[in-house]
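Changelog excerpt: complex records now keep ligands as SMILES alongside chain sequences, and the structure block spans every component. Example after the change:
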Amino acid sequence: MKIRTAGRHTREGFKNLFRNGWMTFASISAVAVTLLILGIAIILTLNIQNLSTNIENQLQINAYVSDSVPATALKGLEQELFALQGVRSIKFISKAQALLAMKKQLQQNSNLLDGLGNPLPNEFVIQAIDPSQTVSLAQAVKATPGIQNVQYGQSYINKFLAVISAVRDAAFIFIIVLLVMGVFLISNTIKITIFTRRREIEIMKLVGATDGFIRGPFFVEGTLMGIVGALVPALILNELYQWLVTSVTPFPPFSFLPLAFVMQRTVIVLILCGVFMGLWGSIVSVRRFLRV
Amino acid sequence: MIEMQDVWKEYGNGIAALSGVSVQIKQGDFCFVVGPSGAGKSTFIKLMYREERPTKGHIFVGGFNIERLRERQIPIMRRHIGVVFQDYKLLPKMTVAENIAFALEVIEASRRTINRRVAEVLDLVGLVGKGKMLPQELSGGEQQRVGVARALVNKPSVIIADEPTGNLDPENSWAILKLFERVNDQGTTIVMATHNRELVNACRKRVIAIEHGQIARDEERGEYGYED
Ligand SMILES: Nc1ncnc2c1ncn2[C@@H]1O[C@H](COP(=O)(O)OP(=O)(O)OP(=O)(O)O)[C@@H](O)[C@H]1O
Ligand SMILES: [Mg+2]
């Protein structure tokens, strides 16, 4: 193919977008609506993923040291615990620090603690490298001599994580269903488009156009519709997400992923899907009428 | 130039449209194809540019053996033939100039050649200044002249037309015929199926009459010969 022919296909593809005004509009709308919902699903999934990471990162083991362990042995105990399999970090909170923190929490009621001395034990806060290993790590910690008791937010957090993972799976299925619907929507639009354009293809063949020559502008047209159909929802989502991030302040463990991070991923997926749908649509539409 | 040897055409539904047609048309000939409705004229024409394929027999058009043609060669063959249709077959969304230029873009001609040739044929068919209009903005006669211009633009050695004046009034029909005569004077072969008695009788060209799928008459300076 000569360069001038490639140029001609591009020009014709562009012109066809305008020549077939309403059909172009309908096709782009179908792509845009599908991709808008897909984009929302992607952003949701990314943030849910982020939420569960946040929560997993907050999974910690509180190991209470028995009072029989002398202050001089604490350093050794810390090293012993840190050496356990799968420990990411360990932090020491002394009795005094713990009391101070509690008084702060109780605020004006802190006088309740007066006269009790310090009932709180020394404490290590341990995090596992792999959050899912928290339970087994907690057992190992508990088995260490000098540790009186351990606590870890196992029960409710695990339930929470299970819910999140269910939501994630649901979102995934939702995306699949959506894509199928989108393909259906677009193929319907294309069917109408083909019908109005079969005569056009027929005439091109009669004038001596090869199949490849006829396809050229259709491909350009399909690709352009796909890109425009992806950019429209991308812009909308960008504005919406920006608005959300700036106007809503979430409390931990909820947090929004940064705009740039989310949009980079979303826009790439949307454009790829858009181009795929556009190209796929044009291949289907021309193939059916090339046999003249 | 065009040769058919014992050509038969039976459509899928069992209708025999042509039964043993043999004919020779030389380069530079001008011939009318006449006959009653349903006689097989359009089939005869369609076989020449391979819109239909013969059930039996051989067809040669300008050096191409039509029934041996590979799928990929069909477009190449069609570029050597200009076809004109009763319903013009113009692309409605393209301007007049674009419709004509299309036949040249297909052969990857340069922009300059395209512009020059389009201007030339627009002049030839008398549509200078209407290149930017859309087909629907033209009269039927003008649309058919665009159809002829498109058929002529890549200088084919033969023009094949199926009832090109079928939708036109006498005045416009004459204009199309005059165009064909001019092109024919320059050596282009013309094959034209028609029901137009006045044109045929006034011209005294070669007339091939088809009846019931067979050649009933083939006269050098023939007449229309039917009462309709
Ligand atoms: N695509 C087709 N499928 C089946 N039969 C067809 C087809 N085209 C034409 N025929 C039949 O073949 C016969 C010849 O048709 P054709 O169109 O060649 O006639 P014609 O001489 O051009 O008639 P007219 O003057 O009315 O245009 C007719 O009986 C017609 O019904
Ligand atoms: Mg006919």
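Residues B 11, 13, 15, 17, 35, 37-43 surround adenosine-5'-triphosphate (ligand 1) (CB under 6 Å). Residues 3-55+159-289 of chain A form one domain.
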